[in-house]
Write a structure and sequence with these properties.
heterodimer, A: 160 residues, alpha+beta, Ubiquitin-like (UB roll), DNA polymerase, domain 1, 2 domains, five-stranded mixed β-sheet, 5 helices, B: 455 residues, Aldehyde Oxidoreductase, domain 3, Aldehyde Oxidoreductase, domain 4, 13 helices
């Protein structure tokens, strides 16, 4: 099958790969580039486990073709910590016991990051709305909501 | 977090060091950084993808299987049928002597539920495996099917599973698990009121976010490493050893990281056939359920029917209870004979009842095989029992919480299955619930104790 070149920035690093035309960004990241932090839970855009950030917007990598990402800046959960220091969202997820099995966690953190990037001090309702596309089947939603609110408070204290 | 230390204060040392203290979870740092390795995060050069051809019928005889077109499909490396599986008929709980072996790894001559695995296709890509699976031709003769437990138990019902010979699991106690305690008919005869009710539930899917699957890598020395999200590592290792007729020393299972299980990943389904594929091709193999397979193929919680007849006195004492429970195993046993057995022990509930009669049936139907899920065998029973308790309280005009205090089991009480009660805490839990829910009960109930005589 014909291969197409794709080139983008992943967590600040240049990446270039040849993929079969029609390959999803999820499969390209996981199978070709080796970033397995986005998870495949449904491969049909319903669970949110594959969420990544493309040019500042939250996207489902299982419904995004890799070949449409040429030149894009892509962020995944594996790239959030800087020099071993956890991102405030990662810290908050740890401190508020917002992980159970952990499978939805990278996608949840992506959705939460896009929210906080756009809305640094969200209301609880805004957090719930922002996470509404991400399923946690351990149903640990309440600690996850608390984690996002905790990270938002930590951010605003740092800013002040 | 608040610890209520007044409960059991006179029988417990106040030396808790861990309980009540927040301790970080050891797995969370991996989860929040995306470093936790789930089975599907492993891949190996040359890895093949396995896809299953599944039965479109609930019950059918297989006249013939033609895999020739599938084998010619570009990218296909191997096509497996029942004859390729060394020990094709198995049952998970044979490890604890719960037989007979009643389930096929790949269907042999017959399918007993819609979705049953018939042919396994191994190909270079997931897509090639999927396309080739669609080219396998299976000629079926459709048979009458039965979907209702009570219909399945009637004479003349279609026989679901020949390995059992009848549509129920034959326990050493006969056609059902039985509990007999006191004289239930005498209890009913002396009761002020009798209440008989039926309760029913449908199958429930666990729907874990991570679907069931495994990745197998041949180690080059006739040994295989299997990365799996099973919840039952040693069940899986031992059953795989039986199915593949390989010593356990040839099998290395790596797991413990499960992206949601809830009981749905305790069956031994994907690993043996994936390891067989790796053995016969010499290549790594990935077999992972699609979301559709997870919802339609993986075992759900069993459908249950519970019929409860209680005799109760005007003062609130339950004096007799008769329960008939039905667990829908679907076409194969898996963990359901055990689930139905747990129900038999559980149906008296956490209550002391002097006269008890319980029968629980594990029934075979042409539905998706059911298995474990969070308290299987007792969860649906608890729903039925506690709804029944509310109805009984209403029947005699008593407060439903006070009614439960009257009947609550306490240390030293003999349970219907003849285990004396030890370490009971129901009364204390209900006292705290009464406070927390602001649902007051009479002072005499707040003064009761699970373990102090006379209180």
């Amino acid at each position: 099958m014909a291969k197409v070149p794709v080139q983008f920035t992943l967590n600040g690093s240049e990446k270039a790969e040849f993929v079969e035309s029609g390959t999803t960004l999820l499969n390209a990241l996981r199978d070709k580039i080796g970033d397995t932090s986005p998870k495949g839970g449904c491969h049909q855009g319903t669970c949110g486990a594959c969420s990544v950030i493309i040019d500042g917007e939250l996207r489902l990598s299982c419904l995004t073709l890799a070949e449409t990402c040429n030149g894009a800046a892509i962020t995944t959960t594996s790239g959030l910590a800087e020099g071993g220091v956890l991102h405030p969202l990662q810290r908050a997820f740890l401190d508020t016991f917002a992980t159970q099995c952990g499978f939805c966690t990278p996608g949840m953190i992506m959705a939460a990051k896009v929210l906080l990037d756009h809305t640094p001090n969200p209301s609880r309702d805004e957090v719930v709305e922002a996470l509404s596309g991400n399923i946690c089947r351990c149903t640990g939603y309440e600690p996850i909501i608390q984690a996002v609110l905790t990270a938002a408070r930590a951010n605003s204290q740092n800013a002040a | 977090m608040e610890l209520r230390k007044n409960y059991f204060a006179d029988v417990r040392k106040d030396d808790l060091h861990e309980i009540g203290q927040p301790r970080p979870r050891s797995d969370s740092p991996g989860h929040v950084t995306g470093k936790t390795a789930f089975f599907a995060d492993r891949s190996f050069p040359g890895m093949l993808h396995l896809k299953m051809v599944r039965s479109p019928h609930h019950h059918a005889r297989i006249r013939s299987i033609d895999t020739s077109q599938a084998e010619k499909h570009p990218g296909v490396v191997k096509v497996l049928t029942a004859k390729d599986v060394p020990h094709n008929v198995y049952t998970i709980l044979i490890l604890i002597q719960i037989g007979p072996e009643d389930e096929t790894v790949l269907a042999d001559g017959k399918v007993r539920w819609k979705g049953e695995a018939v042919v396994a296709v191994l190909a270079e890509t997931e897509r090639a495996a999927q396309e080739a699976a669609a080219k396998v031709k299976v000629d079926y003769e459709v048979l009458p099917a039965v979907f209702d437990m009570e219909e399945a138990l009637k004479p003349g019902a279609p026989l679901v599973n020949e390995y059992h010979g009848q549509n129920y699991y034959l326990y050493d106690s006969g056609e059902c698990r039985k509990v007999r305690f006191g004289d239930v008919e005498a209890g009913f005869a002396g009761a002020d009121h009798i209440l008989e009710q039926s309760y029913q539930s449908s199958p429930i899917e666990h729907a874990p976010t991570e679907t069931t699957g495994c990745v197998v890598a041949p180690e080059g020395n006739d040994r295989f490493t299997c990365y799996t999200n099973t919840q039952a590592m040693f069940f899986t290792l031992d059953n795989t050893s039986i199915i593949l007729q390989m010593p356990g020393s040839k099998l290395h299972f790596v797991g413990g990281t499960v992206g949601g299980g809830f009981g749905g990943k305790v069956d031994v389904i994907v690993e043996p056939i994936a390891i067989l594929g790796a053995k016969l091709t010499g290549r790594p193999v990935c077999f992972v359920y699609s979301r559709e397979e997870e919802m339609q193929i993986s075992s759900p919680r069993a459908a249950e029917k519970v019929v409860i007849k209680d005799g109760v006195m005007k003062d609130g004492r339950i004096v007799a209870r008769k329960v008939t429970g039905y667990t829908d195993a679907g076409a194969y046993s898996r963990h359901s004979p055990y689930g139905a057995q747990k129900g038999a022990g559980h149906y008296p509930g956490p209550y002391t009842i002097p006269n008890v009669w319980i029968d629980t049936y594990c029934v075979y139907t042409n539905r998706t095989p059911s298995s474990a899920m969070r308290g299987f065998g007792v969860t649906i029973g608890d729903f039925a029992l506690e709804v029944q308790m509310d109805k009984l309280a209403r029947l005699i005009g008593m407060d439903p919480l006070e009614f439960r205090f009257v009947n609550a089991y306490r240390d030293g009480d003999m349970k219907a299955h003849r285990q004396p009660t030890e370490g009971a805490a129901l009364i204390e839990c209900m006292q705290e619930a009464s406070r927390a829910a602001n649902w007051p009960v009479a002072e005499k109930y707040m003064a009761m104790s699970s373990y102090r005589k006379g209180a």
